Structures are given as C-alpha cells and as structure tokens.
Amino acid sequence: MNLLENFDCIVTIVNKGHSGTAVNASRAAGAEGGTILYGRGTGIREMKSILGLAIEPEKEIVLTLVRSDISLRVMEAIVKACNLEKPGSGICFNLPIKGVAGICHLNCPQPE
C-alpha cells in the first residue's frame, strides 16, 4: 500500500455561501482543492430567532488536505480571505494526518 505522510487536514467552518472564498484562498496559497460538507451551527453566536422562532444557522465545512510544510500558509490565506478574525464569521483549524491514500497524482501507480 502506498501511503503518503506529512499531511494536515485544514478544517474551515463558515456561514453558508462562503465556502468558495475559503477554497479559492487555499488554492492561491498552494492547496489543490477541497471537499465541502454542509452542517448547522450551535455556537454561542449561532442562536438567532425571528418572531420567537429559532433559526438554525446553515454552515459549510471545507476539508482541505495539504502537505504539512504549507499548512500554516494555507490557513493564513483562508483566515484573511474569510475574515475569520471577525466574531461570528467562522473558524479554521488543522489536524495532523498520519497517512493519506488516493491522491493518485502524487503516489498511485499509473495504468499502462
């Protein structure tokens, strides 16, 4: 099995409609793409209501797999582009990945 090492998964959680900004920023900083998932927020800034009815805020979660050596550069680009230092605009964090398979342009055997 061909496993790649020294990767991080950058997790970015933003309000609905803002995932494209995160993906574009990450690509400009050296990432090759991302996976977008949909969710809902439950944080302290998420509780809103209209006429007494609770609104469940929709979120977009962007998973970006990058080499560890560019992880912080990509995160900084996402934070800046998505204005994540402003309260209520989202969060971004990274997780170390022990092994990666399936990134075929980097390490999979090519068909003959």
Model description:
It is a single chain. The protein is of the alpha+beta class. The protein has a single domain, classed as Alpha-Beta Plaits (2-Layer Sandwich). It has 3 helices and 6 strands. The strands form 2 sheets. The protein has a 4-stranded antiparallel sheet with strand order 2-5-1-6, with helices on one face. Strands 3-4 form a two-stranded antiparallel sheet. The relative contact order is 0.32. The mean pLDDT is 85.
What topology does this entry show?
Blueprint: E1 7-15, H1 19-28, E2 35-40, E3 48-50, E4 53-55, E5 58-67, H2 71-81, E6 90-97, H3 104-107
Antiparallel strand pairs: 1-5, 1-6, 2-5, 3-4
Helix pairs in contact: 1-2
The level-1 CATH class? Alpha Beta
The helix content, as a percent range, equals: 10-25%
Structural class call reads alpha+beta
Low-confidence stretches: none
Encode the helix/strand succession as letters: EHEEEEHEH
Annotation, overall tally of beta strands: 6
- Coarse morphology: elongated
Briefly, what is this?
The chain has 112 residues and is of the alpha+beta class. It has helices at 19-28, 71-81, 104-107, and strands spanning 7-15, 35-40, 48-50, 53-55, 58-67, 90-97. It is 22% helix and 35% strand.
